[in-house]
Fold this protein.
Amino acid sequence: MHDMCPEDVRGEGRAYEWTYFDGTSRRLLVTDEETRFPTGELIVSRTDVSGVITMCNDALVHLSGYSREELVGTSHAILRHPDMPRSVFADLWSTVGQGTRWTGYMKNLRRDGGYYWVYATVIPKVVDGVVVGHTSVRREPSRAKVEELSAVYATMRDEEGRG
Ligand SMILES: Cc1cc2nc3c(=O)[nH]c(=O)nc-3n(C[C@H](O)[C@H](O)[C@H](O)COP(=O)(O)O)c2cc1C
């Protein structure tokens, strides 16, 4: 994944040198601009077993700000926001790894440094007892839950230690 560029970011972004689970890193530029989830739409993407995007709908392209070409073939972690606790993703991966669907709230990072919240359901595809890929469907999140989880996730991040 490429570093985020100041030309693509709306306003002054806070810079983070972010290291992903696989050991690769990338410079993030993060602003406080929220884009609201479009009412009535669904965001859908599919990944291979390791979380590399294999398909996505137009709603993900619009909300994330990335082109389809930038998303397909790239890890879903391209949308990872530094405010998200690591333990949320650990829970996601351990749940889908057992062949069970996971639901939860995610704050995602846009290409322009802003963010959007989603309520996500991640469904593993199991063939002959083996997980071979995943589908994620996101709906508009409840505002009350977004407010509540912004505070909960901030506490969890502090306890985990930043970075
Ligand atoms: C189907 C599917 C959809 C995912 N959607 C997102 C997403 O929208 N945002 C996100 O940050 N991570 C998403 N993830 C989790 C990422 O793959 C990744 O684990 C996460 O961003 C944390 O990055 P890291 O594991 O490299 O630390 C998704 C995973 C799967 C399997």
User: Anything to note?
Assistant: The longest strand covers residues 115-127. The mean pLDDT is 95. Helices lie at 58-64, 68-71, 86-97, 143-160. The chain is about 25% helix and 35% strand.
